[in-house]
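Incident review: delayed structure delivery

Summary: a single-chain prediction request sat in the queue longer than the usual turnaround. Root cause was a stuck worker, restarted by the on-call engineer. No data loss occurred. The affected request and its eventual output are reproduced below so the record is complete for anyone auditing the incident later.

Affected input:
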Amino acid sequence: MLSVAQKRDIFDKARTHCVKQGKQATRGASCVYKNGDGLMCAIGAGLDEEDMKMVLVAYSAETIGHLVEKGLVKSVFGHSVSTNDEGFLAKVQIAHDRAQFRYEAGNLKVDFETAFDDLHSDLFGQD
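Output delivered after worker restart:
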């Protein structure tokens, strides 16, 4: 089971990845762990190469919870995960998948900052 410090590390790395990437990893209208352009979702960015191969070959439509339950994902951003961590990982995944769009300097942009800031408050309070 992840410690609070490990959850914060995963959260921070996922947020940084999404904000830097600036786009959702999608195939058609669906979010995916990694798409053909190399974009990765919040969780996909934290999967090691071996786990990512398994996910891409046969399980790309599965939620992170199902992947952990099946033993196909063993770590995220270098931290070992278990079925006890499914709820936390799902929330991080959903922050990527459901981030809203906003206009910035006349361009449509995915607002990962707000999505992750809201999740931070939900997970860790107002620290």
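Verification: Residues 4-124 form one domain.
Action items: add queue-age alerting; document worker restart procedure.
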